[in-house]
Batch of 2 targets.
Target 1
Amino acid sequence: MSDLLERLRGRGWRMTAQRRVVAEVLNGDHVHLTADEVHARATAKLPEISRATVYNTLGEMVSLGEVIEVATDKRAKRYDPNAHRPHQHLVCDLCGQIRDVHPTGNPLTALPSDERFGFTISDVEVTYRGLCPNCAAKA
Ligand SMILES: [Zn+2]
Ligand SMILES: [Zn+2]
């Protein structure tokens, strides 16, 4: 899995201390954080970082195409550093954990032509829901 900080540096992004903290918070596999969660974690590393800086930095990373916005629930947009490998999401209904998953077959071509209404389809978003093993064991 490619490193978000390396990718941003490779894009010529000016790495300030504040930007670095936001990138560090978002770096990793299966990371899907709301802006508020990013802000809370960034504050733990850099107490003076403002919410506005976090929001602006997230917006820049999305504009660069190195972070994607995902909407797996109705509450808040989440930020996902897995921007280069197309994937869908698996969400636990109880604890809310989100995994990146890769369904077999191409979901873009899975829609029959008579269901396309003449559209040229460019993207697809599928959210699989259920219970993770921990929550299933408790339920
Ligand atoms: Zn769970
Ligand atoms: Zn994801």
Target 2
Amino acid sequence: MTGHRKLAIPAVLQIFLAHVLLLATLLGQLFFSPRANAEASAPQTLHVMIDPGHGGTDTGASRGVIKESEIALKVALKLAEEVRSDSRFKVSLTRTTDRKLSLPARTKIAEDAKADVFLSVHLNSSTDTRARGFEVYFQNQLPADEEAMFLVGREHEEETGALSPEIPEKAEPISVQTDLKRILEDLHRNHRIINASELAKRLIESVSRGQVSGRHQIRQAPFQVVQNIAIPSVLVELGFITHPQEGQRLLEDDYQKLLVTNLFQGLVKYKETIDKDAAEKLKLQASAQ
Ligand SMILES: [Zn+2]
């Protein structure tokens, strides 16, 4: 076993170095191209895809005549109007009428439109009528050691490879390509999760400053709508329709407007943060050149 490991380590290192080189080349192209610089110098519009939860026969949570799908649509339309009035943003909606839409259809609409962020609007309910407050969910974190797992996987392949010597040496470049693709996908996924958590943070900060009722919290949950999408996405639960007072307030136009103002402020803060980050990255590149 010891002898085998001695042989295996340089091979793993070689593969690792090949990845590093390829990655450096690709990232170099990505960040140092004149096109990237020109685009980064002026903040781009942020395309927000607003997704009113449920719809049609899928009413979501309900209490008497109060339907989650209806309130979510009302708030989403108000928010879209607010976002549209600011030229720094572009806005789209997954639905503008009371119609049923599958979760994969929602994510497809957002991806086809090349939206930058996805904001799904929902309302909570609970059998405990004391439950109240605004919540933001974003995609679950990756396992912390995913990259370590990747290397372990390579090592494992080396070992199984040793048991089947017929594996041709020349298959290696294809494998490096595949793994590189996987690394880039992981980078992209990390970027998406970081941005989604940033957006969640900004929304909750904004809502906490406003007069929105109850406790406000950020949560991570494997909601399909925020899980299986290629852009940063968050899901907001505006409040509990099952809470006697909060449920009532959620129906009121003024309270819906208050929620919209706070959500919009959160989006503005998020945009300012990512624009600032982009400007700093640009400064760093300029000093490196
Ligand atoms: Zn819902």
